[in-house]
Structures are given as structure tokens and as C-alpha cells.
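As promised in the previous annual report, we have extended the structural survey to additional targets. Below is the entry for L-fuculose phosphate aldolase.
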Amino acid sequence: MSVRNLNLLHPRDQIIMIINRIYQKGLTTTSGGNISIMDESGDMWVTPSGVDKGSLKPSDIMCVKADGTMVGPHKPSMEYPFHKAIYSERPDIKSVVHAHPPALVAFSIVRQIPNTNVIPQVKQVCGPIGYAKYAIPGSSDLGDSISEQFQKGFDSVIMENHGAVVGGKNVIKAYERFETLEFACRTLINSKIIGEPQFLTEEQIFGFNNQIPTDHPKMETVTHTSDEKELRQQIKDMVRRACDQGLMMSTYGTISVRWKGNDFLITPTDATRWDLQANDIVQVKGGLCEPNKVPSRSTWLHQKIYEMNPEINAIILTQPEYLMAYGVAHKKVDVRTIPESWIFLQDMENVPFGSHFLSNDTIPQKVSAANPGVIIENDSVLMTGNSLLQAFDRLEVAEFSAKSLVMGTSLGAFAPMNENEIDDLRKAFF
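The corresponding C-alpha cell record, generated without further manual editing, is:
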């Protein structure tokens, strides 16, 4: 089921689409969590109580009518009262998502609020985080505790010793907020394993948002050749693969592929990544982009990399959680740990936050065939390749390496390959 024409999907179908994604991504358990949607009639559609989240059908979704009548084959979630309380306090919110993903629960049981100044996009999507004191699940006290936070203007709330609840103007926006908040918590936890997270100042975040291009010159007419159409499909398929592999989120991730000369195709901004379609992708030709489309905010960076590096034909910019732990802790990933990592990456430098700002040539000058990727501190990971598959493969290898390093930190000191072993690899593969 697609998120296209979301308003034409029945609320029960919208809920099934999102609960399936939450369950498949390991963000809830068979019995945990609940989702609701408030429709235009004032009726609340909500997941049922005691029904397997991994096999829910549209017919399982309950309706709590505006007059309190319950329609459906089950009981509504035992926690539907706090959903109702949120809608009462915040008429602008039309969907609520609650679950118990591991990293968010970790913050809830140590009674901490994650600092969203860790990455600009996290702060933009999640906003400030509220904190609801503990109360018995399903109780009116819990509803009061949570709705009070939403009344204060929070859209994301940590529930003490419980989990988290988020709201949005529709179920997609609520899910994006929920997924991004869990990503932030995982990144912060992993960064503390290898060091200490470093946070951005309000001035740095303002500077980032202020420099993003908003007016892209448009071409008058656009031509779609057979090879261009093929590249669109490749990008679409790879974005979905990256989402399925945990290398991209709904709200963040950019792929571009060189088409001919310095012209290229790139993913759009403000599109749900896992539902991206081929016709969403933006052609950039002669510095002009397709009319009626908004390309990625990093389009200028991709353009500069292609102009300065003729051997690079594909670029991926994204936020894998283990690599981002290194980006947030300002630590360097040691790719000498296993042969494959060094062969694929050779070196992977960190560059300071701001290196990706408009008109900064640091990254285009640093990436090359020998140095295919960089970690942009407190922002993202950029990986390149002579093909889209090579760039994706390198990204996967880098993320697997970072994951192994995070896990290995608790076991003892690393024993990387020595210079003689690196020389042997160099002679064998280069």
C-alpha cells in the first residue's frame, strides 16, 4: 500500500500501513504500542487491544465514535483514553503514535530527555521533547500526564518508564517524528559507547537552515530519454533498499546518479523515502532542474562533486545510525580493522559541521576514488562510487564496520592491521 493520495485512504488502511512499517522495523512488539487517527467527523480510529501487531488487518481496526460508541470486532487499545485526551487538547493533531522502541525506552527508564541539538534534521522533525510522569497504563492519570505535555505545545513526549508518544497532522508525519526520535536516541546511546556526543549550538543550527538554497533555477522543458528513465528506476529501487536495510529514514537520505556530462538525477526534498516513485526524482541539466519539483537541499554539493571528480558517477548522502554515532562523537572510524573495510574505503575522514554548507569546497576536494566517503560531523555520511551499486556497497560496508567497532568497544582494545598487512593489501588490490 502506498502513501500516495493519503487523504483518499481510509483511516484503517493508513493505520495498517504504518503499524506494519513500525513492526517490520523492530520498533514495537507483537502486543506493544498503538496508533490512532482522528477523522473529519470526530471519530477516532485506533488499533485494537490484544491483537497481534504483526498480522493486523484493516477489519481489526476499531472506531470510537464521537459519541463514545465503539464499532468493530475487538476492544480498542487500553490506552486509547490518552489518545482522546491529546486530540482534545490539540485539535491540530490528527494522528498519534505510541510504542516502546528500545532506545526511546532506554531514555525513559533513566528518566532523561534526548537532546535534539545532535543533528539539525532531528531538531527540525521532532522539535522540543516533553516529559510525562509515570502513571498506570490505560489510566486517566496517564492521560492527564501526557495531554498536559501536548497542551504545552510538545509534539513528541517521553513517557517515564514507558516509552514515547508523538503526534502529527497526519499519520505519516507522526510516524516520521517517531522514527526520527528513535534514531536520535540510538545515535546518542552508541556515541556514548565510543566517546561522548557533541551537540550543536542554536547558532550552528540557524546557520545550517539559513544557508540551504530555496530557489533552484528551473528548465523550461524537460526530455526523458530511455537511459534517463532507467536511472530513475535504479534510484527509486536503491532508496527503498536503503530504507529496508536501515541506511535511510523516512525523513532523510539523498541519492544522485550522473546522467551525462555533469548532468544528473537526484532525489527530491520533503518526500517520504520509502514511498519514493520514479517520477518524483529530479533531473538537473546544465545547472537547471525540472519545473514543478524541488530537488534535494544538497543539490549544489552533488553538482560540485560531479564537476570536480569525473570518476564519481553516484553519490549517497544519508544517516546510518552506527556511522552517525562516530559523526556525533567526533570520532574517526578505523577502517583497518578488517581487510574488506580497508579495501572498500581505504580511508574515511571526518569533516567538521559546516563543510557541507553552500559554496564550501571542502568535501568536493576531499572525496575521490581513493577516498570515497566522509562523515560530516553532526549531520550525515556522504559516500561516492563509479556506479550507484558501488556507492551503496561501500556505504553498507562502512556501516557494518562502524557497527562492529561500536560492539567491539565493550570487549577490549582493538587490534587493527599493521602497516605491513596494509601494504600487502595495497599490492594485492591496487
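The first strand starts at residue 34 and ends at 38. The radius of gyration is 23 Å. These points will be discussed at the next consortium meeting with the crystallography subgroup.
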